[in-house]
Amino acid sequence: MRKIAALGILMAGSILSASAFAEDIKPAVAYDLGGKFDKSFNEAAYTGAEQFKKESGIDYQDFEIQNDSQREQALRRFARNGMSPVVAIGFSYENALAKVAAEFPDTKFAIVDAVVDAPNVRSVVFKEHEGSYLVGTLAALASSSGKVGFVGGMDIPLIRKFACGYKQGALAAKEGAEVFENMTGTTGAAWNDPVKGGELAKSQFDRGADVIYHAAGGTGIGVLQAAADAGKLGIGVDSNQNGLHPGSVLTSMLKRVDVAVATAFGDAKDDKWTSGVYVLGLKEGGVDWALDDNNKALVTEEMKAAVEKAKSDIISGKVEVHDYMADQNCPF
Amino acid sequence: MTRGALPRWADYGLMPALNLAAAFLASGLVVLFIGENPVEAVKILVWGSLGWNEGIGFTLFYATNFIFTGLAVAVAFHAGLFNIGGEGQAYLGGLGVALACLALDRYVPWWVTLPFAVLGAAAAGAAWAFVPAILQAKRGSHVVITTIMFNFIAASLMVYLLVNVMAKAGSMQPETRTFEPGGRLPFLQDVIPGADFGTAPLNLSLIVALMCCMAVWALIWRTKLGYEIRTFGANPVAAVYAGISPVRITVVTMMISGGLAGMMAINEIMGSQHRLLIEFVSGYGFVGIAVALMGRAHPVGIILASILFGMLYQGGAELAFEKPAITRDMIVVIQGLVILFAGALEHMFRPGLVRLLAAFRPTAAQAA
Q: Transmembrane ranges (chain B) (predicted)?
């Protein structure tokens, strides 16, 4: 009995010392212009940070920038206050981080969606085209008309990368499948225009599409709503959006920004921090498709088998998904 | 007539101060409402924007943007035109600056590039204002509507150019390559001995902006064209009767206005970002309207109002850092209140103030 008690004290002691050590890190997140509650990309980062806070009890600081001049300012401000690791969300931080990381070589930085080559920076990028390929496969198989749609947010290379992977996946699953592609807009407002998203989705339904994938942040909420209203199918993005309209969301392309943030914080806490480039594809679990109770009924066994086969083919390298950003071109 | 009832010092000093005080009082209530200490919030805001070198640097950096866009709105205002298109004109101005910098930065030092960049910015901004101007002058399509529409066209055009034409190959960002030193304006602290603005991107554009203020003052109050602009603004019918061509004044004024808005890009693109990037204007064009209203469309007033908005931008960022409960949206609320009290409710205190001053100085009021 005493032995057990002694063990207990020992364990408690080690836990205490662990938490005392853990107090040493002061993590911080800098969100992109979309803001932390964009229901999408930035919010995924927020979720990851919150999850870390809940699990470790370590509080973090965050900041939402208002304009581009604040990028450097925010990172520098965090670094100067002794925050580390500092995670920058979004490729737009690339230049700012390159500059600030050189000024604070002892601070750990991480950036999501871009690569910054510096000894104290961890760069996390995702192979969104691989995840999009999978949902493209599912879309084509679920479609009875052979026509599927894509609604992008702002027309930038990153979103064309989603579209291209999706198209390739759809064509691979069903030869001759037709893919309609629309971008919501050309300004940042395109990330948060659910009304227009819904209109684009409706017009694609009118042209015969019956499954629509969105990569449009807040705009996509309108796409999924339109799909649910029309009795057709939508596909979510970034976070698991299956539960938004159970039975009307075929699946979601998961992009684990939350994991990237939580891992960056956790690695720093556990003294396992490593810098360098992390390319998170299917193999690394950085992207995936979502299957849960909400969409179980929509995904048949054949579809499941097909998408799992595509997944293993991509992981093994048998199928190569074209990366739009490699040559700014989509061959499909 | 109400304006004449107030002495100048009250019109230009006391009124804005009262409006500002009311705005901060209302903001304080909002801050109190979300459970923060308003006095402390003001302290952080003022300290963050004026209390340390880098803060001052950022405040003046933002102010530089607002001076350009504020002047743009003010010039049009004198001709009775409401140019809401500063946002798009500044965006296009960025294209002019970037083209000059990309063409020259590898071959010549910055001071050779600068005049071309200024010219490019002004020309691009002016060109973007030209179409709404000619539509107003010849067809009567209201500039308020057309300039707003042109903001959207500018955004689409620039995205097209940045995504498809000007972007670096293989880059995630829709932006051009970073300019070499020949395309970068020196920071003010590198030019003025002893000045230290930390890492704030305050650069020579501030000097350009102040020169523009002087030029606008001279143009409006010391030239024939300026007289025509003011006459046209005060009474278009009388202006025509006096032999002033409404088409010419509308087009010329709008192009000057657009050119000034375009020059804002010198500060952002050549002075700070050193590359052309998407949506770099981020609202400065619209804030310029508030700046011009608050500054009474006079260059000195515009400089002061620009510094105030620079403080709100920079101090607001510090506030958001220090107080997590005060998000950036709260900062926008505070900025909005300042605009509301300084611009929209401009005449709220005026009648009371006129009566008050008349009671104290009856002879002076009669003389005025």
A: 12-35, 55-78, 90-108, 114-135, 142-163, 202-221, 276-294, 300-321, 330-349
